[in-house]
Amino acid sequence: MAEFLSAALETGDAAFIAESIGVIARAKGIAQIAEETGLGRTSLYKALRAEGNPAFSTVLQVMKALGLRLQAKPAVSKENVESGKRGANAKAKGAKVSASRNGGANKPTSKKPATRTKRGSATGHGKVIPT
Predict the structure, then answer these.
(1) Which of these, 22, 45, 47, 122, has the minimum number of CB atoms within 10 Å of its CB?
(2) Between 28 and 130, whose confidence is greater?
(3) Which domains does the chain have, with CATH numbers?
(4) Stronger pLDDT, 13 or 75, i.e. the higher one
(5) Threshold 0.85, pTM exceeds
C-alpha cells in the first residue's frame, strides 16, 4: 500500500494521487473507511476518483483510516542530481521530515511550564494558574 501511494505521490499529479488513494480505500472497503472517518460512502467514491477533487482534510482522514501518513522530503532538482547536491534546505543527504500536527515540523517543545485559565469573571477573562 505505502509503496503504491508513494509512487503515485512522486508523479505530482493530484488526480492520479486521489485515484490511487481511492484504489487503496476500495481494497480495504469503502464502508469501513466511511465508518472510521465519519464521511459518507458516496462522498468518498466521488472524491477518490480521477475526476474528484478531495479536500485535504478528507485525504488526511482517509490516509489515517488506511494506516498511512504523509511524509515530506527535500525536493531534488535536475541540476542538483547531476551535480550530486541536495536541495538548499536539506541538512543531510536523504533528510526527511514527518508531517505532524505541529505544522509539519519537528519543533522542540517550549521550556515554559504549561498554564491554564481559571474561569469565573463576567468578562470571561480569568487568572492564569500554572499547572
Answers:
(1) 122
(2) 28
(3) 2-72 (1.10.260)
(4) 13
(5) no
